[in-house]
Design goal:
The protein is α+β, with helices and mostly antiparallel strands and about 325 residues long. It has 8 helices and 13 strands.
Length: about 325
């Protein structure tokens, strides 16, 4: 290869390195078009691994120099410029917490406990960032590329995913990888079930919400009697497994006197003797809270404990 070609390649690599470092240094100063995987333990990922992942994700040949159509270049242990189908990206593999310092535990109260755990327990992260401005109309395609490539790195070491631009998080679950490979990957960051929020029912404020839910139970039953297929009715229950407990929601299918039948609408975090989708039989006296929405106005009714847990004013 002629000497001037190598000079061009070196200059391009230096420019790419500077851009990538700028992304790493300034990612928290603005709304990055990026996705970030939060990891339990630091993970070493090199350019060869990213090339393999890109080839698998997109079915294209991926080279190692910037004169190639698609490439991944190892410029530092943490930073790799990437170009896939014309999109300039930066792959970062960081051996430290994404949040420095991590937020105090009390600030995580009110979050879904699976997301709170993702924030509290992660010790490393990997991300894929768009490293130049593009027209807004191209953003969906950029996110499809970013999500599809990062999906190749989701495994048991992955706690969840974060989108800085939308400020949305999702914990790792069995279908996350497939959802990220879909047409609208940012929908994968939308919670599909009712949040599981850490609760201490010795708290007088939460005890009061149980009393309110029980006293107003006839309202729930009357509304359920008029239920249409599109309406959703749920009750919150305590689930125990040894010394572990969680407070989760079921979608109510039927009410017969004081007997209630439904389907668990949460993916448990601590208890292992039930799973999302299990049929649950319970009674009115075990109901800690209730909520429902109708197609008429889509307003959430009930949810007394949620208002306390999230600090929402009644």
């Amino acid at each position: 290869m002629r000497g001037w070609v190598w000079i061009v390649i070196v200059i391009a690599a230096i420019l790419l390195l500077l851009v990538a470092r700028a992304v790493l240094r300034n990612r928290r100063k603005g709304k990055m078009t990026a996705l970030v995987l939060f990891l339990k333990e630091p993970r070493a990922i090199d350019a060869q691994a990213v090339r393999r992942a890109a080839t698998k994700a997109f079915g294209v040949r991926v080279g190692s120099t910037p004169d190639e159509e698609n490439f991944v270049i190892q410029l530092s242990p943490e930073t790799m410029p990437v170009r896939i189908n014309g999109l300039p990206l930066g792959f970062i593999c960081a051996q430290k917490s994404y949040m420095d310092p991590k937020p105090p535990q009390e600030s995580l109260n009110g979050l879904d406990i699976r997301i709170a755990k993702m924030i509290a327990d992660h010790r490393a992260w990997i991300s894929l960032d768009l490293i130049q401005e593009i027209p807004p109309a191209m953003k969906p395609e950029a996110y499809r590329h970013i999500a599809r490539l990062l999906a190749e790195f989701i495994d048991d070491n992955c706690l969840g995913i974060y989108c800085p631009e939308e400020d949305e998080m999702m914990f790792n679950h069995p279908n996350l990888k497939n959802e990220l490979r879909g047409e609208n990957p940012l929908e994968a960051l939308q919670l599909k079930d009712v949040p599981i929020v850490q609760a201490d029912y010795d708290d007088p404020k939460l005890k009061a919400t149980i009393d309110e839910a029980q006293q107003r139970w006839p309202e729930f039953v009357a509304a359920f009697a008029k239920k249409r297929p599109v309406d959703r009715f749920g009750v919150k229950l305590r689930f125990a497994d040894g010394d572990q407990e969680e407070f989760m929601w079921i979608v109510v299918d039927s009410i017969d006197g004081d007997s209630i039948k439904g389907v668990l609408d949460n993916s448990p975090n601590a208890v292992k003797n039930v799973k999302s989708g299990d049929t649950v039989n319970t009674t009115r006296r075990d109901v800690l809270d209730w909520t429902y929405t109708t197609d008429e106005d889509d307003e959430i009714r009930g949810g007394f404990s949620l208002k306390v847990l999230t600090g929402e004013k009644a």
